[in-house]
Structure formats: structure tokens, C-alpha cells
């Protein structure tokens, strides 16, 4: 199949080179790059990325679920359609334009900042929390999109069967509703983590390098902003990222499969 | 376990502009299996859900053994329910599904498991306790759902079209088993279905509903032989509508004059309602006289064959002949058509009622 | 266990049962609060961005920023480059995925897991690590391949007027989305029966693909194309790190000197992307109601 050949060349070769480069230092096999990528400023960046991604995933997961439940239980079909379409659009809204929209809103000379005089109260968008706020902008809609099908899949018969067996509303949620939804909810959270973890454009356009993130560090190293002889550290950092992202997928896929089976 | 008496009194329920229940009155005797039969939208499911507590009637009350339970929340009613399909909790295995009600009531684990096993054996599935719903066939799922409905020893068992999502074969075995179980437990059971064959074969009595009202409640034989209204006649079994002329208490149809069952209407021209098995057909041999009609279609059903006969005046008649005779009635055969000598039902001609045979419903 | 009913009945008689109208009210308030908060959070940045672009200090309302977009240096070039890359990517990704998706459904279902994995990989591997690999390959190229014809190829794909290397990279990024929409489209039309029916009526294989499958796949192909185009138009990471000035990179570059124009372009490009996606989702809805 031509597709497979294409992927092997265009995708496989860079990945092999990346792997090779990671374990090469001054022409010989070495784990020095990998070790270095897990130390000092690099480690801080990696942990920073994990920290912000985890925070965005949990917050986005919880808030997105509430929004999804509000929409699903609403009787207005148009509201539901509107929110779902908007979510589809917003979940794809990332990169540079997203950063600029927020800078224009809550940046140092942003419209809301100046209108409310937030500047005098020490407000700044260009830090960890500001970035979290911005990441949530595409993460919450993504969670809505993941969770709505699961909420729709909760059959009314289950609630009625539970009542019929003497269960209260709380007991229904505890023994049936929440367990049934858990794979979908966790699956969504894992996706959000992955999205925030690999985001680069928004962070670059917004905070430059004031918040330590692994994607920013890799970009720095690739654009030559690194000591001679340490170029391959970027490759090692990339490998670290792939390992983390791979773990995330390894968690996500089984959850997704189970959810699909239950909510068939 | 003893059965309870269930009474619906003047039950009314509307959803927006549609009236689901329009003053339903029905009493179900203790230990009886009653089938609620009717086309979709006739209110049969709504009636069941009012009894289970998932719907609140706008007017009227539901009584169980004389006690008004209309305002009792669904989780405090003493009625086990089996749903149409997919009602098993997907995150629990069969055993935990069956023992769900006992878990809610904080029964000790060992006792729960023993009871669940007992119930699974009762429904003929002793070894599926560890399996999850998606690992069970449709028929097995409904058996587990039945076990779950019986787990709390309810005084009423509610079945909401529990067989309609199953294959024809499984449907027949399972309905026989439900009936056997119901008889041995003596539990009052209300069975909602749109399948007349199911209703007639299982129930002690069948209640036919139409537009939220009771049309007739009777045992299956009475319902079939003496339908109280044209709707019931139409809905239960296949029925021919033939044009007849009434004079006194007799009616002339297809050249025969037969007594009228019940009271004859005032109009002279009437619809005469005749079951296919009450239509007599005989082939006209090559030498013989002219026939009344020609066989258009013959469908073989084993013990009988059902013929669609085109009469000279353009009407069509359904007629049943013994299966082993079907070879004599191949399509194209000219036949003579008559009726069995016995009282027939007549009804005033409905405005729309052209005297043609009904589109063939399910086998009875 | 057998008779809970009487007990409950007395409870009802003493009037402790909740009034029927009272219960649904609480969730309604809760739902309203959630929806209002969500609306504020999602709408304010959009409105604020617009206000930011039309409000000139000391002058009040003005649409100048939007007018300046078109005269700004580099606008046309970068936009055309991005559109060109988008079209090339769409063509290539469809040429690669459509036959593969059809083949997997008809001829080689055993290859399906392989294809699924291949099409999930780009989701697992963050774009920035992908570009790290690519740039290393491109950097090493001259050292190792200088004497071979491959070297010429390496130079050619990096032509700044039309960087083929970006097309190749974007095809990889677009694979998961394209494959999924095509596979969903194929699933909806039952290719096997359709193609067997066509073969039975005497059609040749190319004929089946061109006259039977593709016409029935129009909306799935359109959705794959739209998603790919949206992806290419918004892609920043790879283009920036390989130093090609695509549209998003141009926005980023001018943000330093012309903040207002850059936000205006952001709003503008957002609108375009949204229109694309809205067209896509409404086309999808029509398709569903049609079948």
C-alpha cells in the first residue's frame, strides 16, 4: 500500500533519526543526552509541562462535564445544537490566533484589563495561571464533545430499573451512573492532557519563555539557542515527550474501548 | 409470594396535545396474567409506567390491594419491572444486576449472592453469574432482567414488551417460560405487547386498548370469537369485510343468508365480518360450472394455507384451507366461495369502509 | 421485604411527599448558572478582540486595522503559500488514504489494525517532536548524502517558494482526521454491497471506484478536505521551526510591530476557519437527515 510506504519514509525516518540522535554524543553511543534532558532546567520544563497539562486536564474535565450535563438535560434543542457546534469549532481553535485573542482581552493593554483597571492590582496573563486559563479555552469544548455522547448513552431504562429496585437518585449515580460514565470522563481528561502537553504555538506567542515548558525548550534548542555539542538534547527531550504522550495513549485506548462497549 | 389485586381508576394522562390515557378503568385479579394489547400510542405502556411510578397520571388513581399508591415514589413501590431491552446495568455482571435491589437495601454480601444464584437458576441461567451484559445474548439478557425484577419478591410483575427485541424462536420459548414461572409463583402480572399472538397465547385475559381507552377485556377465546367492537375484530386476528344486506335478524352475504350475532344495526347495508377460517372454498373442476372467484396468492403455513381470492365483483377475500390441500388451490385456480353456517358479526358501514379484504395481519 | 406499600401510603397521607412542581426547579437554576458562566468565558475574548481591533486610542471607532491587513507587507504571499500548501496536502492525503481505506474494507481486512495504528501515531507524537526529527534529517542530509542524487531532492523539498517538506509533514498530521472521516463515510454506504452490485452489473474496478464509490463519498471527502485545510491554515509549530513563512507565522512576525493588525488578522482567520467548520458540520447534518 502506498500509504504505508509514505508513512514509513516521511514519519519513520525522522523518528529513527530522532532515536539515533538521542543516543549519540560526539559520534559514539551514549545516554548522556537523555540524562541531561532529565536534569536542571530541562527537568523543570518537563515537569512544568506535566503540571500545567494535568491541571488543565482536571479542570477542563470537570468544567466540561458540568457544561455537557447542563446541555444534555436541557429541553431546548437549539441550545444543545448551538453548544455542540460551538464546541466543535472552539476545540479546534488553538495556536497563534487564540493567544492573540486573549492578549487583546486580558493582556497588559487588553480591553478587559484596561476597562477594569486590573493592571494596578498586579494582574498578568503571562504566567502559569494565565496560560492555564487560555488552554482551558480549547480544552473545555473538547471535553464537552467527548462527554456528550456518553451522557446521551446513559439509558433512561437504567435509571428506571434502579428506581424499580428501590434505589434513590443518589444510589443510582453511585452504583450505576458514575461507574458507567467513568471511562468516558477519564478518556476525555487524558485527551485534554495530551492536547495541553503538546501545545506549542499558543505558549510561544503568549509567554515566550517566562513559563518553563518542554515544547518551548525543544524549540529553543532547535533554533540554535543551545551550547555547542548539546544539540541532541532537543532530540532527547522529544523522546521524553513521546514517552509521556505514549503513556497517555496507553491509558486512553482501553478506557475508550470499554466506554464504547458499555454505551453501545 | 401471593399476587395482589391491581386497579386502575379513571386514569388520564396527556403529553402536550396527545392524550395517552383517556379515563382507563381496569381491574387485575390476584395471580392473574393480563396482557395490555393495542397499537403503538394506545396508552398501554403509559398505564404500566403509571403503575411502576415512572409516570404520574393527571387524573385518577392506581390501587394495589386497595391501597392508593398514585403518589408513592417509584423506588418505594412493590412492583418488579422488565423493560423492552438494554436495561441491565452494563458495569455490573449478571449476579450483581440481579442482586442490585438487595445491595441498595444493604443486605449482607453472602446472602445477596445466594439469592442471586437461586434466581438465576429459576430463569434457567445457573452459570452466567460472572458474565457482563455485553457477553450475554438478547434472550439471556431478558432472563437476567426477569430475575432482577423478581429478586425483591414483588407483589406485581410488570413486563413492558420484554420480547419484542428478540428473534422469533427465542421469543416463543421465552414467553412459554415466563408463563410457566408466573403460574408457579402465582404473581399478578401485567404484560404490555403490540403482538396479538403473544397476548393471546400467554394471558389469562387480554385488555385491548385504543386511544387511551379500554375497548374490551376478555379471555383470549372470547376476544377472538366475539369481539365487542369492530376495532377489536380488526386488531385481533385476520378479518374479512364483506358487503351484506340486513333484514330482521338475518343478513344476506355472498348469496347466503346467515343469522346475525348480537344486535343487528338499523341500516340495511352492513359490513359482515368473517374470519378466514369461516370462509369455505372449493375448486371448480375443469368440467364444472363457473366459479365465484380466482385464487390470486396462496401462502403455505404448515397446518393451513391462506388464500387470497379475487371475487367477480372486485372484492378480495382471505380464506384458510388445510395445508395438505394447498396443492389443489394453486394461483389461477377458479374456486367457489361460501361461508360456514353460523352466526356472523356485522357492523354499520364505516364511511371509508370499502368492502375489501384487510391487508393481511400476523398469523393467528 | 414483601409489603412496603402500606407504610409508604401512610407517609403520603401525612403529606411528606414532595410537591410535584417543586422538584425540577433546583436543577434549572444550577443549569442556568453553568450556561451563563460558560457564555461569559467563551464570548468575552471574542468580543474583546473585536473591540481591541476597532478602537483606536484618542480616535474612537475605526475599521482601519482591517483595511491595513490587505496592504500589509507579506500578507498576500504568506496567505497564498498557506492555501497552496493546503491544496497540495488535501490532494496527496486523499490520494493516499482513499484507496487504502477502500482496500481495507474490501480486500484486506487483516490490514485494518495496522492502518489504525499508523493513523493514530501522529496523534501520539507531538508535532514538535516530529519537527525535531525532520530538522535533524534535513541538517544531516548535506553531510552524508552530498554525493548522491538524494541530495538534490533534499534541497528541492526545502525550496522556500513552495516547501514540499511541509506538505509531506502536513499529510502525516492530517492522516488521522482524513482516515477517520473517510472510514466513517465508507461505513455509512456499505461499500461491499455497492461494489458487488456494480461488479454484477458489469463495471470494472476503476469504474466502480470512480463512478460508484467516490460519488457516494462526496460529503466524507469534503469533510476530510475541510479538516485538512483548517489544520494547514492554522499550523504554526512545524513551519516556524523549519523557518518557512506561512500565514500563522506571518501573523506572529507582524505582532511585534503592528499589534492591532495582528489581532485583526487573528479575528479574521478565525472567522474563516469557523465558516469552514460550520459549513462542514451543516453539510454533515444534511447528509444525515438525507439518508
Automatic annotation (TrEMBL), chain A:
Keyword Transport part of the UniProt annotation: yes
Topological type in the membrane: Multi-pass membrane protein
Keyword set, alphabetical order: Cell membrane, Membrane, Transmembrane, Transmembrane helix, Transport
Record has Transmembrane as a keyword: yes
GO biological process: transmembrane transport
All residue ranges annotated as the ABC transmembrane type-1 domain in the record: 46-252
Cellular component, GO, one term: plasma membrane
Domain of life, source organism: Bacteria
CDD domains the UniProt entry points to: TM_PBP2 (cd06261)
PANTHER family assigned: INNER MEMBRANE ABC TRANSPORTER PERMEASE PROTEIN YDCU-RELATED, INNER MEMBRANE ABC TRANSPORTER PERMEASE PROTEIN YDCU-RELATED-RELATED
Name of this protein: Putative spermidine/putrescine transport system permease protein
Upper lineage: Bacteria, Bacillati, Actinomycetota, Actinomycetes, Streptosporangiales
From TrEMBL, chain B:
UniProt key word Metal-binding: no
GO cellular component, one term: ATP-binding cassette (ABC) transporter complex
Keywords assigned by UniProt, alphabetized: ATP-binding, Nucleotide-binding, Transport
Record bears the keyword Cell cycle: no
Record EC number: 7.6.2.9
One matching Pfam family: ABC_tran
InterPro entries: AAA+_ATPase (IPR003593), ABC_SmlMolc_Importer (IPR050093), ABC_transporter-like_ATP-bd (IPR003439), ABC_transporter-like_CS (IPR017871), Mo/tungstate-bd_C_term_dom (IPR008995), P-loop_NTPase (IPR027417), Transp-assoc_OB_typ2 (IPR013611)
Alphabetical list of PANTHER family matching this protein: SPERMIDINE/PUTRESCINE IMPORT ATP-BINDING PROTEIN POTA, SPERMIDINE_PUTRESCINE IMPORT ATP-BINDING PROTEIN POTA
This protein's name: ABC-type quaternary amine transporter
From TrEMBL, chain C:
UniProt keyword Nucleotidyltransferase, yes or no: no
Source superkingdom: Bacteria
Every ABC transmembrane type-1 domain range: 79-280
Bilayer topology: Multi-pass membrane protein
Pfam families: BPD_transp_1
Biased composition, class Low complexity, residue ranges: 12-21
GO cellular component: plasma membrane
Compartment list: Cell inner membrane; Cell membrane
A GO biological-process term: transmembrane transport
InterPro entries xrefs: MetI-like, MetI-like_sf
Annotated segments matching region Disordered: 1-25
Gene3D superfamilies: MetI-like
UniProt keyword list: Cell inner membrane, Cell membrane, Membrane, Transmembrane, Transmembrane helix, Transport
Extent of Polar residues compositional bias: 1-11
Location (main, coarse): membrane
CDD domains linked: TM_PBP2
Transmembrane residue ranges: 33-54, 74-102, 114-142, 162-179, 220-239, 259-280
Family stated for the protein in its record: Belongs to the binding-protein-dependent transport system permease family.
Protein name per its UniProtKB record: Putative spermidine/putrescine transport system permease protein
Amino acid at each position: 500500500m502506498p500509504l504505508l510506504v509514505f508513512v514509513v519514509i516521511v514519519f519513520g525516518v525522522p523518528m529513527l533519526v530522532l532515536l539515533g540522535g538521542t543516543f549519540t554524543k560526539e559520534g559514539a553511543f551514549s545516554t548522556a543526552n537523555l540524562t541531561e534532558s532529565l536534569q536542571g532546567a530541562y527537568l523543570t520544563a518537563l515537569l512544568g509541562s506535566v503540571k500545567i497539562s494535568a491541571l488543565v486536564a482536571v479542570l477542563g474535565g470537570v468544567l466540561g462535564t458540568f457544561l455537557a450535563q447542563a446541555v444534555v438535560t436541557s429541553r431546548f434543542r437549539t441550545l444543545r445544537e448551538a453548544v455542540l457546534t460551538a464546541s466543535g469549532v472552539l476545540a479546534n481553535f488553538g495556536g497563534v490566533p487564540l493567544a492573540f485573542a486573549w492578549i487583546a482581552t486580558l493582556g497588559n493593554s487588553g480591553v478587559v484589563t484596561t476597562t477594569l483597571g486590573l493592571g494596578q492590582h498586579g494582574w498578568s496573563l503571562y504566567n502559569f495561571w494565565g496560560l492555564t486559563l487560555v488552554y482551558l479555552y480549547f480544552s473545555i469544548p473538547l471535553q464537552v464533545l467527548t462527554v456528550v455522547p456518553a451522557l446521551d448513552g446513559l439509558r433512561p431504562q437504567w435509571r428506571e430499573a434502579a428506581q424499580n429496585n428501590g434505589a434513590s437518585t443518589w444510589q443510582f449515580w453511585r452504583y450505576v451512573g458514575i461507574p458507567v460514565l467513568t471511562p468516558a470522563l477519564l478518556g476525555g481528561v487524558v485527551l485534554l492532557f495530551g492536547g495541553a502537553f503538546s501545545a506549542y504555538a499558543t505558549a510561544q506567542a503568549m509567554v515566550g519563555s517566562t513559563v518553563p515548558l518542554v515544547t518551548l525548550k525543544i524549540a529553543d534548542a532547535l533554533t540554535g539557542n543551545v551550547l555547542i555539542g548539546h544539540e541532541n538534547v532537543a532530540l532527547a527531550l522529544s523522546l521524553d515527550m513521546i514517552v509521556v504522550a505514549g503513556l497517555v495513549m496507553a491509558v486512553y485506548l482501553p478506557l475508550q474501548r470499554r466506554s464504547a462497549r458499555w454505551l453501545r | 409470594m401471593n399476587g395482589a389485586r391491581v386497579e386502575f381508576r379513571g386514569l388520564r394522562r396527556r403529553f402536550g396535545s396527545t392524550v395517552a390515557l383517556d379515563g382507563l378503568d381496569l381491574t387485575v385479579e390476584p395471580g392473574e396474567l393480563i396482557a395490555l394489547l393495542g397499537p403503538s400510542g394506545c396508552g398501554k405502556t403509559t398505564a404500566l409506567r403509571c403503575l411502576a411510578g415512572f409516570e404520574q397520571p393527571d387524573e385518577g388513581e392506581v390501587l394495589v390491594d386497595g391501597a392508593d399508591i398514585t403518589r408513592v415514589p417509584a423506588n418505594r413501590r412493590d412492583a418488579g419491572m422488565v423493560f423492552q431491552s438494554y436495561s441491565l446495568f452494563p458495569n455490573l455482571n449478571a449476579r450483581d444486576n440481579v442482586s442490585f435491589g438487595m445491595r441498595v437495601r444493604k443486605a449482607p454480601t453472602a446472602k445477596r449472592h445466594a439469592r442471586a444464584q437461586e434466581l438465576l437458576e429459576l430463569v434457567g441461567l445457573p452459570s452466567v453469574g460472572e458474565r457482563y451484559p455485553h457477553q450475554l445474548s438478547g434472550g439471556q439478557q431478558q432472563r437476567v432482567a426477569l430475575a432482577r425484577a423478581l429478586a425483591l419478591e414483588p407483589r406485581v410483575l410488570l413486563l413492558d414488551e420484554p420480547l419484542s427485541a428478540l428473534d422469533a424462536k427465542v421469543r416463543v420459548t421465552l414467553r412459554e417460560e415466563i408463563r410457566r414461572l408466573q403460574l408457579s409463583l402465582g404473581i399478578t402480572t401485567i404484560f404490555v405487547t403490540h403482538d396479538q399472538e403473544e397476548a393471546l397465547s400467554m394471558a389469562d385475559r387480554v385488555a385491548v386498548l385504543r386511544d387511551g381507552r379500554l375497548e374490551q377485556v376478555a379471555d383470549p377465546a372470547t376476544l377472538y370469537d366475539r369481539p365487542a367492537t369492530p376495532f377489536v375484530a380488526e386488531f385481533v386476528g385476520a378479518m374479512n369485510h364483506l358487503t351484506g344486506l340486513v333484514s330482521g335478524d338475518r343478513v344476506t352475504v355472498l348469496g347466503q343468508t346467515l343469522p346475525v350475532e348480537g344486535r343487528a344495526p338499523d341500516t340495511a347495508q352492513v359490513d359482515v365480518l368473517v374470519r378466514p377460517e369461516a370462509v369455505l372454498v372449493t375448486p371448480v373442476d375443469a368440467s364444472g360450472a363457473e366459479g365465484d372467484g380466482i385464487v390470486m396468492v396462496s401462502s403455505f403455513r404448515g397446518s393451513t394455507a391462506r388464500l387470497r381470492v379475487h371475487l367477480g365483483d372486485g372484492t378480495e377475500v382471505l380464506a384458510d384451507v388445510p395445508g395438505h390441500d394447498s396443492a389443489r388451490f394453486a394461483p389461477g385456480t377458479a374456486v367457489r366461495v361460501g361461508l360456514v353456517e353460523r352466526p356472523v358479526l356485522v357492523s354499520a358501514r364505516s364511511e371509508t369502509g370499502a368492502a375489501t379484504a384487510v391487508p393481511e395481519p400476523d398469523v393467528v | 421485604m414483601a409489603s412496603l406499600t402500606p407504610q409508604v401510603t401512610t407517609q403520603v397521607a401525612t403529606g411528606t411527599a414532595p410537591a410535584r412542581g417543586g422538584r425540577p426547579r433546583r436543577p434549572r437554576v444550577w443549569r442556568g448558572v453553568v450556561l451563563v458562566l460558560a457564555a461569559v468565558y467563551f464570548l468575552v475574548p471574542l468580543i474583546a478582540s473585536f473591540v481591541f481591533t476597532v478602537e483606536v486610542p484618542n480616535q474612537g471607532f475605526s475599521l482601519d486595522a482591517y483595511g491595513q491587513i490587505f496592504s500589509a507587507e507579506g500578507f498576500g504571499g504568506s496567505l497564498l503559500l498557506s492555501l497552496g500548501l493546503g491544496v497540495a496536502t488535501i490532494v496527496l492525503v486523499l490520494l493516499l488514504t482513499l484507496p487504502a481505506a477502500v482496500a481495507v474494507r474490501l480486500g484486506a481486512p487483516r490490514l485494518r489494525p495496522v492502518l489504525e495504528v499508523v493513523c493514530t501515531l501522529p496523534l501520539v507524537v507531538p508535532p514538535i517532536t516530529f519537527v525535531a526529527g525532520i530538522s535533524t534529517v534535513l541538517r544531516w542530509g548535506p553531510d552524508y548524502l552530498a554525493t548522491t542524487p538524494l541530495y538534490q531532492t533534499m534541497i528541492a523539498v526545502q525550496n522556500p517558494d513552495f516547501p514540499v517538506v511541509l506538505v509531506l509533514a502536513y499529510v502525516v498530521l492530517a492522516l488521522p482526521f482524513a482516515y477517520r472521516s473517510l472510514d466513517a463515510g465508507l461505513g455509512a454506504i456499505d461499500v461491499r454491497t455497492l461494489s458487488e452490485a456494480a461488479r454484477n452489473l458489469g463495471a470494472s474496478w476503476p469504474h466502480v471506484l470512480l463512478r460508484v464509490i467516490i460519488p457516494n463519498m462526496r460529503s466524507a471527502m469534503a469533510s476530510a478536505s475541510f479538516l485538512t485545510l483548517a489544520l494547514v491554515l492554522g499550523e504554526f509549530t512545524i513551519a516556524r521551526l523549519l523557518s518557512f513563512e506561512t500565514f500563522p507565522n506571518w501573523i506572529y512576525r507582524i505582532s511585534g510591530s503592528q499589534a492591532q493588525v495582528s489581532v485583526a488578522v487573528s479575528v479574521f482567520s478565525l472567522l474563516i476557519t469557523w465558516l469552514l467548520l460550520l459549513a462542514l458540520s451543516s453539510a454533515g447534518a444534511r447528509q444525515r437527515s438525507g439518508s
